[in-house]
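User: Okay, second chain of the day. Same drill as before: sequence in, structure tokens out.
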Amino acid sequence: GNTASEVGKTINNPDWIELIYSTDGSFENRYSSSDSMNSDTKAEIRIYGIGACDLFHVMSYFDTPGQTLVYDCNYYKGDERAVNVATEDIRASFDMTDDEKIFCREHFYNYTGEDCFSGKILQNKYDYVVMSFHDDMALQIFTSRDDPNLRVVRTDDTRIAETNLICNGVFMSRKDQLKWLEDHFYPGEYISEERFYDNLTWIRKQLPIETKLILITSPELDFYRKRFPHVPEVRNQIIRLNHVIRRICAEYPENTGLVELNDIIISTDDITDYIYHFTAQKAWEIYGGIVETMRKFGYNASGCGQEPCLGNTRCQLSYNPSGEDWGDDIDIGIRRQYQVSDNPVWINQTWDDFNIYAKDRQIIVFGAGVGLAFYLSENESIRSLRIVDNDADKIGTPASLYLSLKGSDIESLMKHPAIRGVTVENPSILTSIEQADAVILIANLRYYDDIQMQVEKLGKWRVYSLMQMEARQRGAVHD
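Assistant: Same drill. Structure tokens below.
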């Protein structure tokens, strides 16, 4: 299936995988019964990890004989993340009342995962606890106006993540979400350094003193993801909270160790499409960094009678399979009910109407991203487009940089003749174009209503919504 980096391109002949074949050509199990741990003589090493996609690959290396691994991670339920793993969520597992937890599950989709509020980190005794902090770095905390103890970790910024609100199990429309949040919660804020320090201190004190806590910093590169290369507020948050992580490790040296990720992730060559998505080689090196830190506290994987999986040693290989293919981006939008709108301008709009009107007119696509990629994939014969976008960071850059479409060959789309040499322009250029000679196709799948109102202020434009027309074609819009 789809991968963030093309298989075989980033590294050849990875040396951490070894296949051993028997004489008949079948694959042999690396471990025989004599290699397995002897439970009568050697105790298992108990390891707990909590993090996001930055640790998926890394923690799998600890899944070896003689070690018990428990890993709490962000995962997807349907099309969206189903549980948060921020330090604030750990605190909420113990600080929130049952009624507050039920409220979260009923209104916030990312709190509907079965492991939400599980508090596994403190349920059992572990030899080592490994923590990374994606959600503290990237997401915000929304505090209830009526109940200050109800603090929800999420974001409204779709560049960062999808953390939708639900009503009776159904996604609210964007407009309803914003109104409901404004009525019931204060605006979201990134966790402060003081609160993050309090949370980590609380966790350290709740853990048994003999449990070794391993804290991992986040990459400080000036990069976020391919579609949104620069999100300075997240980078600034990473830098601030990394200082706190280093401080905690310095204050509890007897049982808390630091893994400095910025000694391993040193350039964008070390990541794939996202600041927290690492190449396989770097995941292996991060694992090695964790092991070296654990060794300072006596870790030697003695449970399986072998050294940890470093150097030439081969241990059991485990992996994290990708999730179910939940359809293309339009399907996802339909399930999230992005097509729901009370704006009469979209009534009965169809692709046939658009193509008839757009013939011999300049097509201006509003929105550089998934919608643009979809339009290009469906219209190979289009030869000329102008692209506008509200994102100031995109203005003046090649439109081909922002193509993203599930299941499509993005490299081919980047060579589409309609965007060859085309840069993203500011929407203000619409005031200088003769409206009768052009048409606007709003390619943003979610905020087309907002963009339509913006365009309406710039003149009497003929405007079409890609999401509305495609949803209607798929039978998902009922006027």
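Residues 232-251 form the longest helix (20 residues).

User: Thanks, on to the next one.
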